[in-house]
Design a protein that fits this description.
The chain is mostly helical and 106 residues long. It is built from three helices and no strands. It is flat.
């Protein structure tokens, strides 16, 4: 497995600058989680978001183990990214009063 990074550019309508990024990230991940669940041959109604997330994370840990990835390090890094992104979201909201925040285009 290569460590090469894949860069993906999303059209502006998928990632407008003045949106609630936490909501954007959550909606993006829900699409991934639903695709994962469908890949396993289940429907969204077969479980809860919590159970699907746990199952997906467990499979990610298996993938890490098989591919020699330090899962503990990656989980710590993910937590750090999450905390930094939350802090940035709070900063952005402080800079932009809520009445000036744009809503994402759907």
């Amino acid at each position: 497995m290569s460590n090469a990074h894949i860069m993906v550019s999303l059209p502006a309508e998928f990632h407008p600058a003045p949106v609630d990024m936490a909501e954007f990230r959550a909606e993006r991940f829900e699409k991934i989680l639903k695709a994962y669940m469908l890949a396993k041959g289940n429907s969204w109604q077969d479980g809860t978001g919590q159970s699907w997330l746990a199952d997906m994370l467990a499979d990610a840990l298996h993938w890490a183990d098989v591919n020699g990835v330090n899962a503990s390090f990656v989980l710590k890094m993910a937590q750090s990214h999450f905390e930094s992104e939350k802090l940035e979201d709070v900063r952005q909201k402080m800079v932009r009063p809520s009445h000036q925040q744009a809503t994402p285009h759907h």
